[in-house]
Amino acid sequence: MATIGSEAIQGCDARADSPGITLPHAPSELAASLAEGAAIAWSEPLAITTYEPDAPSRYPMFLDHRVYQGSSGKVYPLPFTEGVSDEGVLREWDAVHVENRYVRLVVLPELGGRIHIGYDKRTGYDFFYRNNVIKPALVGLAGPWISGGVEFNWPQHHRPATYLPVETSIETGADGTVTVWCHDHDPFARMSAQHGVRLRPESSVVELVVRLHNRTNERHTFLWWANVAARVHDDYQAFFPEDVRYVADHARRALTAFPEADRPYYGVDYPALASERPGADRIDWYKNIPVPTSYMIVDSQQDFFGGYDHAAGGGFVHWAERRISPGKKLWTWGDAPFGHAWDDQLTDGDGPYVELMAGVYTDNQPDFTWILPGETKVFSQYWYPIPAIGVAHQATPDAALHVGRAEGRTSVRAAVTSPRDGVVLSVLEGGVATASRTADLEPGAVIELDAEFDPLEARVELRDGDGRLLVAWEPVDGEPGEPWVASEPPAPEEIETVEELYLTGLHLSQYRHPTRSPLPYWEAALARDPGDVRTNLAMADRDYRAFRYEQALVRVELAIDRLTRRNANPIDAEAFYLRGLVLMRLGRRLEAEQAWGKAGWDGTWAAPAGFALAQSLLFRGVNRAALRVLDSLAGVVGHDTRRTALQAIALERLGRKDEAASTIADALERDPLDATLRVLSGVREPTGAGVLLDVAIALRDAGETRRALALLDEVARGPQTPAGNLRPIAQYLRATILDAAGEIDAAREAREMARREDALWAFPSGADAHDALSAAIDADAQDSRALHLRGMLLYAHGRRRDGAADWRRAIVLGDHDPVLLRNAAVAAYNVGDDDARAWELYEMAVAVAPDDARLRYEQDQLAIRLDQSAQERFQRLEPVEPLVLTRDDFTIAYVRLLVAQGMADRAYEILTSRSFHPWEGGEGEALAAWDLTLHALGRPLVDPPPTLGEARPQYMPPLARRDDGATDYFATSLPELLLFAREASLYDA
User: Fold this and answer.
1) N or C terminus of the chain: which is more exposed, having fewer CB within 10 Å?
2) pTM score, two decimals?
3) What residue ranges define each of the domains in the chain, with the CATH number in brackets?
4) Exposed, middle or buried, 198 (CB in 10 Å: 0-12/13-18/19+)?
């Protein structure tokens, strides 16, 4: 037989459920369509055992220097979650089910729109790892993160919103294709992302359609990685294209050959292992990797990769165009007790997994690229299950091909992604078919051909019955030289040219380096050439984002002066665009419009400048001129739904209401979850407070005052959530609009309401919040709430001293909120070098909130830095031991104190009876406390108990700290969250 159809698979469990999760049947109104071969989608809750995260901390986390995934682990303005329940409860999760004849998927909107289940109905194989519980570990940027399925990471890794909800809609195309659209509003830069999980009739391919839209007026950086989890064991193998000869660690700090590692990698001497156990250097097999390990391919020209389960006879392929999707990566906790302990933290019984990750516009981590204001990047990624063909040596969205080259025998196996009659599998030598086989195929079936051929010369093809090529394999020629490895940039004084100084600073800024600032490089560049255009614009942009508008304008003008000294029409008009942004913040609207008009001469900046100009014209009520600007952009520059919204507003004001409604309706057909268009249509408004706030600002800036106020009213009535609390800032924004409209009493009332709002998780960010808070302080210098909030905003945006000054003023005004006191204490230590004041403020905060474990933990960490004795610290903590034991990090610190006080028995009791949850980058903290306790008790070092949640590592990973105590330039994580770090030299006075 040349084929194996689904009816021939006797031993596979083809149920779409397993212990822990039971998937519902399709609704009766869709079941008939499914039976006829259609693709269907519907919403129906799914009951899953869930370990709930704790409520986030009430304190903002200013973690700019936290090393996370190789870049900045800054989490502000998101609240930070620090704990997870030890007990699972059955919880109903919103779920969207997508299904056709071959594949079943589950999308979870409340968890970032991730694909939680990917199931091959033909073979009964979960080609994506199915985690039957929601069991977060403290791995995510903001705390909780879960394993399994597919996580879509942007604008950095891991996704800031991975444990936050997205909005969804189901779209059914005329051809029967179904797409589940998920809309995410980035909580950091306020950009918009939509990913559509798409399934077509009669196809096993899962397509992901992505639209990344920069809805802001600033250029931003981003990356996109899709993390696909796969269940693994000794017989699981990852496969990359055959032209992959090397793989690299994060930031290309290290290399090794692939698939046979030819040197030590992540502390493991693979060649030495292979000398004792042949094949142990093959790092494409999970069983051979004993430590947490990442590797990313280097320099492949192919479009596919994936993983294969040799025991189950199934796997998956990922395919995307290499020109935009070069990133292909494997991550594992490692097949050893240390990694297995992490697996246990993330699941109850579904075992270990690896992540086979696909990067778009990125090929390493961290590796960020740029997105212009208003730009929309659109791309697709594809996954599909493969049956028992073995690892794929070539793949397309139509088919996958395995070319076996065992000694003395050669064989070819192939599988397709949709039904194909008369498929021909051929081996060609010198362009002539020397062997072939024909069969009817469908997904889940395999065609196999055994033949004698020279694998170094032959070509293998799979064509459909009409002769169209589905997939072809040819041998890879040549051995590439060893790729380059990254190096740490030299110090500024060691760099010869202004250009290299500028580019080094740009790299540090673009890649969000957590411990190296671009400022010394840019300052050195300007010291050598004060008029350098690139460096002045980089510094102006930085000043603008830190709300130093006057200073930014000086730098922009300096750059423009040189740019236009001999050429009034420079090749790049970014300086004029940035000048417009700065002038608008300074209230110089007409001058800003002139700057944007000039910026529009440059094709790169025509769209951003045209939008900003049209929006400002609408604000002034110059509607026809605004419409002319928008018309000049139509069909010339890229798609931007913001322009569509402005066009509809202009048409409506000009009395062309039917045309405006039609414009919105047409746009929503293409983009059903665009927030501003939905608000303007009035059909289905967004629900997230962050989205509504940003839409309100966009409408305010277009002169839609009443609409903006209505949305801000809704935000001000909204709930406090783990995504934050926008109620106070919504009121302050209302006040600025009311003030501008001359409604002075109403503005005063809005500010009073802002002061009365509960400020839990109220962490403002961005220029609009800054300007509204500054206006409130100008209106009432006694507004301690506005001072407190603006202080947080300034401190989080790098203006540490200015933020600290606002907090001091708020305290003098009599505000003794524990969050304010704690924030001021952190600033007093970090940038004020006032240790006594820092301690005094913590004492005041603890007096106000004595039962706050986070507060007491931070105070104890400060006590360590102030060289307080172990006895003094213990005497402070022992009376509140039950409170101490509510936190893992606090408990570990307390255990060390117990040992120091000769109470190792109590330390041992705590470690063996209390459950710990390690956090990524913090591995080893509980283990070190365990070893310290055993040593104090005179006992031999033994493996830790299960309560610690971690195991002893076999190998030493790359160290994050150098011998001199400095953070290694290439560090990917650090145990400390670096709340206390002297920063006076890094921030402005």
Assistant:
1) C
2) 0.95
3) 6-52+88-386 (2.70.98.10), 395-473 (2.60.40.3870), 818-948 (1.25.40.10)
4) buried
